[in-house]
Amino acid sequence: MNTNWLVVAATATEIQPFTAYLSEKATRLDEMNYVFGDKNITILITGVGLTQTAYHLGFVLARQSFDWAINAGIAGAIKRNLTIGEVVEVSSECFGDTGAETATGSFIDIHEMGLIPPDMPPFLGGELINPHAGTIGLPLVKGLSVNKVHGYLPSITEMLIHYDTDIETMEGAAFFYACLSAGQPFMQIRSLSNYVEPRDRSKWNIPLAVQVLNAKLIELIQEAQP
Description:
Blueprint: E1 3-9, H1 16-25, E2 27-30, E3 33-36, E4 39-45, H2 50-61, E5 68-77, E6 87-95, E7 99-101, E8 107-109, E9 128-129, E10 140-145, H3 153-162, E11 167-169, H4 172-182, E12 186-195, H5 206-222
Parallel strand pairs: 1-4, 1-5, 5-12, 6-10, 10-11
Antiparallel strand pairs: 2-3, 3-4, 5-11, 6-9, 6-12, 7-8
Helix pairs in contact: 1-5, 2-4
């Protein structure tokens, strides 16, 4: 019996080697659907950001359920024990810039403001937690999702005061929220292209991050269902 997989990415570039692999090795049904062995694989390119991810993923999950949904992309490493070019699995997410700024420049998140209780489903203690994490042998990390990635030292410092998190993305929390709300089993894998520090793109290694991400993605679909 075939299993149904949904692979979600913000941009086609991030998973281009994976889709190229499917085009060569799998049966292509149409632009976004493939059959690879015992897996039916659907590709969803949402566009960058929380809003686009929430809309497009919600649209798909309202019409179809999958055995597994995978969010794959690159990310910035907040913790320095992580290595550029490393692939990690995200076990929890939070919205890192949904809230209010105080008169002194500090941040109050949406839960502290009392607008969303921290344990209102699908949140637990103000976090979105993946109950399925830890099945694929990757290091587990905590994710922070933002509309504006951090690149200015004072705002990075404020973020570090407020959150104990490992990586930063622009889509992860929306993916978690949609999957948890829909009861959809899921995983998020990210490869690290840069550190979250005063912005300097000359230090980033996006080609390496894309290479290792896609190698892991190909490995996942070659294996049995996790």
